[in-house]
Amino acid sequence: GWSPDSRMFGVSTTSPRMNVDNGVRLYRYNGEEIKSTPWKNSTYLPDRLLEASFVPSLPNVYEDRAQSPPPKITGDAAAIAEAKKRAAEAATKPATTSSKGRYVPPSARGRSSGGTSLAERMRQEKEGSMMGATKVTKKLGGSIPGASSSGKKLPVGLSAPPAEGGKSKSAQRREKQKLAKAKKEEEEAKLKAEKEAAEQAAREAAAADPEKRARKLKKILKQIEDLKAKDLSTLNDDQKKKLASEADIRQELASLGIS
Q1: pLDDT at 190
Q2: Contact (CB, 8 A) for 139 and 132
Q3: CB contact set of 21 (below 8 Å; sequence gap of 6+)
Q4: Contact, 22 vs 41, CB < 8 A?
Q5: Is residue 85 part of a domain?
Q6: Nearest residue to 105 (alpha-carbon basis) of 116, 94, 95
Q7: pLDDT, position 99
Q8: What is the pLDDT of residue 154?
């Protein structure tokens, strides 16, 4: 930073950002180096150079000095006039840099001098990369991550719209749920049909040989009576279903008219 009298400027290399070549350098306001003081960590261990600054001064110690005047022009009147003219032209003429020897990217060669700023070059390179990726993707038949089918980059978090004739992820998920529900309903209908077929077969068997059906029903009722004598908490699901069917079995047995 600047010294309190605004005539010197100090720079330093400090720890812990850098632990080598630490030290302080002082310069005059015109850039002339005054002093260089290296700091060797090995000499001052365990102390390290963490900061270097001028000691502040009290107000009004140093007078407020005006800006230093430019160097005086010496010589005859013609030389002084020519020097002033060149200085005025240099002050009004915008600074230009020679393009000779300067690297120009292949994409910018042959163009006018406009649009050669860093931001412009970065934008052109980015657009060129996206266009190149789009060409390769179209050739391979794929898609660019984070880009739409038209090659335009989408905002973060926004998924690309489905391609023409395709389905989005949400549509695919809904379709899977619909198929799972239909499959479940089909299985339930199949079980119901099998149960009804078994009941129909039992009714037909009873009609063909009622005595045989009656003997079977009585056997089931005897099993139900045995289950009643057991602890209900020890019964499995099939045994509980058999207990619940007692009323239906007695009704069917009564319909056969066989005691």
Answers
A1: 92
A2: no
A3: 13, 38
A4: yes
A5: yes
A6: 116
A7: 54
A8: 62
The whole-model pTM stands at 0.27
The answer to whether residue 130 is domain-embedded is no
Cβ-proximal residues to 92 (8 Å cutoff; 6+ apart), any chain: none
Are 233 and 202 found together in one domain? no
SS3 label, residue 10: strand
Helix (H) / strand (E) containing 28? strand 23-28
Residues of the domain holding 81: 1-89
Residues 253 and 240: their CA atoms lie apart, in Å, by 20
- 1 exposure class (CB count in 10 Å sphere: 0-12, 13-18, 19+): exposed
* Residue among 60, 77, 13 at smallest CA distance from 41: 13
Query: What is d(CA 122, CA 126) in angstroms, rounded to the nearest whole number?
Result: 6
Instruction: Give the chain's domain count.
Output: 3
Specify whether the CB–CB gap between 254 and 214 falls below 8 A.
no
d(CA 80, CA 72): 10
* Per-residue pLDDT tens over the stretch 137-160: 555 444 445 455 555 566 665 666
Residue type, 171: A
Pick the closest to residue 39 from 58, 18, 23 (CA basis): 23
Residues 188 and 257 in one domain: no
Q: Do the Cβ atoms of 225 and 239 come closer than 8 Å?
A: no
The two structure tokens encoding residue 164: 């023409």
Identify the pLDDT of residue 187: 92
